[in-house]
Structure formats: C-alpha cells, structure tokens
Amino acid sequence: MASSDTIFGRILSGEIPCQEVYADDLCLAFRDVNPQAPVHVLVIPREPIAQLGEATDEHEALLGHLLLVAAKVARLEGLESWRTVINSGADAGQTVFHLHLHVIGGRPLAWPPG
C-alpha cells in the first residue's frame, strides 16, 4: 500500500495546497503542476493504494468510481476528447506511488504516447 506521506498524501491532508477541480468522499481531482497538455488533471483516491498493480477485488467499486470521475472531470473541463492514463510501476513512468489517473486533453494527442 502507498504511504500517506507521499506528495499526494500530503495534498489529501491539506499540508500541500492544490488547484482542486473536483472532490468527493472517495477521491480528489486537481491540476497537475507539470501539465503535459492544456488540460492535465490528476484524479487520486483518498485511500492510499500505491499503484494499480496493488489493487485488489476489494477496490473494484473504487476503481470504477475513479474512471467515472475522470469522465466527469473531462466534461467539467469542456473536453470532447481526452486521454486517461494510469501508470503502474516505475518502468511505466510512475513517479508518485499513490494510484492516480491522468486526464489529459485540450490538444491533439499522438499515439503511441512513448
């Protein structure tokens, strides 16, 4: 499991401020401080799961909720097209070990991403 002392844990505790886009009892969505597109929002669960690879059957409803919130965030941001990315593990580009979804859009996105 992720530690609550990651930067995202510190954001959730209010120790570090963020530009909140959406929040509910299960998650928080906020603007990425290093955006890769005009819209780049992170959606994080309040429960500290380190990465998608550590999620269990108990997290099924939470994972579905995070995807629905990603779509809600895209609509709130006025996006008609967007990319949702989940990096799981260091070799996949994950740098903060607290599960998070990237909602990226506002410009054409190439494929493959990298």
UniProtKB/TrEMBL annotation:
It holds the Pfam family HIT. CDD domains: PKCI_related. SUPFAM superfamilies: HIT-like (SSF54197). Residues 7-114 form the HIT domain. Gene3D superfamilies: HIT-like (3.30.428.10). It comes from the Bacteria. Coiled coil: none annotated. InterPro entries: Histidine_triad_CS, Histidine_triad_HIT, HIT-like, HIT-like_sf. A motif (Histidine triad motif) lies at residues 98-102. This is Histidine triad nucleotide-binding protein. The lineage of its organism: Bacteria, Bacillati, Cyanobacteriota, Cyanophyceae, Synechococcales.
